[in-house]
Write a structure and sequence with these properties.
By secondary structure, the chain is an alpha+beta fold. It contains eleven helices and seven strands. Strands 2-1-3-7-6-5-4 form a seven-stranded mixed sheet, sandwiched between helices. The protein is rod-shaped, with a radius of gyration of 35 Å.
Amino acid sequence: MALPTTTVRDQRTAVLGGRRARAMMRAIRRRPTVGPHPLSSPSSTSPQTAVVDWAFYRDGKRQDDVTSYSDAVNRARQGGGFVWIGLFEPSESQLAGIAAEFELHPLAVEDAVTAHQRPKLERYGDSLFAVFKTVRYCPHEELTSTSEVVETGEVMAFVGPAFVVTVRHGDHSALGQVRRQLQENPDHLAHGPSAVLHAVADRVVDDYLTVVDRLQDDIDELEISVFSARGARNVERVYQLKRQVLELKRAVAPLAGPLRQLAERPVRLVAPEIREYFRDVEDHLARVREQVAAFDELLTSILQASLAQLTVAENEDMRKISAWVAILAVPTMIAGIYGMNFTHMMGTDWPYGYPTVLIVIAVICAMLHRYFKRNGWL
């Protein structure tokens, strides 16, 4: 199907930008370490500022004799290996050269740059584009109504026959450890780019499990505090934690479809042996989804219980106020009667009239206080 005119124009622009970017990428030399390096300012247009690490792999082993990016790409195109490039929050101009080099689809490139995407799996020609939502638990000494419990980020992966390009957004979603673990397991890495895709998905879901376990502790602590003597004051905390769980749910739930597709349906770019590993990741995700759903229901129940406690507390306060108003109404009424200017009133000429009225007021108030106390109003 023919692309719209604006899309064709964008592709031409990306290709022209890609030629300039490829010229700059040829100057990138292999770094001796695997981990992330300090980046330049965000205004820089050089692809090098966004590249965290890259390498060429053959038979599951990192080839140390590859000294330049262009050499790695050429070897990958010749077959027998693949190149893995890791990027951190690249701009459109920084990603343009790599997109033109591997013929990445403009729509997928746009998603990778702008981020804020739902977890998904899309196929564009001979490549796959996968989006994963990453999460991190934010430690805190005490849960408050403004505590940020779950922080989210994103990892995108372009997977082709001879390349993997990972793009991550968020400081907590580093893939250096994933790369090292894969390099320590060359038999698994020998399955090609799909092994990298599985490792990324497995890392993301493992982080889900970690966050879920920490959230369980927070919810248990909150549940205990809510049903304590002063639990009605924890409504804001319950609501805040429920919002954080909903944010986790938005990251976890949409990933079920892409993982099911990778685990059950034959995909040309995914080795059959790797599909079995995706089933394991899918099982872990199912556990996370069940726990998140349970958290959501439990927090809803806790929130309702907190609101009910608050309503009961307000009713008790109103009963106490009403009881004291009724008690104070007696001396107010009697004082009001005797405050009227009549000549002939009972007890006004009696020497013991004043103390008698005070005694009557005290007795009636004491009786009312005893009555309200016995009925639980005071």
